[in-house]
Amino acid sequence: MGGLNCTLNYTAAHTTYPLKCMLTPQGPVAAVLGRPADPYTRALLAAVPVEGVPRGGLASLPGSVPDLLRPPPGCRFAPRCPHARPACASGLPPVATLDDGRQVACLRPGEGP
Asked: Would you say residue 100 lies in a domain?
């Protein structure tokens, strides 16, 4: 994965994708997408078109995507994250390994809907 590629990559049954040049999350596809542990993945999944949902009926995020050439300090998603706290903007979050082996770079893994 090079550059600013923000596509979801599947390798066998394992997935990872870049979050504005920061990898999150990692683990089996069924676990990462079936039980998202970070707000960014939950937001992505809420924006996936679903049959029967009218145009404009999908979730969106407030704000705008940060400048990728001059990203904000800390978590790249913090300015738009509904669960952000001051520590999220002070430094890059460490990678947390969850009980099922998934990895996510988030100070608040598993919180939220």
From this structure: yes
Q: What gap in Å lies between CA 100 and CA 95, rounded to an integer?
A: 14
Phi, psi for 30 (deg, rounded to 5): -60, -35
pLDDT tens, 6-52? 344 444 455 555 555 555 688 888 888 888 888 888 888 888 887 88
Residue 14: which domain range?
Answer: 9-105
Give the three-state DSSP class for 105.
Answer: strand
pTM, rounded to two decimals: 0.68
Cα separation of 89 and 73, whole Å?
6
Pairing state of beta strands 95-97 and 14-18?
A: unpaired
**What φ, ψ does residue 46 adopt, rounded to 5°?**
-70, -20
- Buried/exposed code over 1-27 (b: 16+ C-beta within 10 A; e: otherwise): eeeeeeeeeeeeeebbbbbbeeebbbb
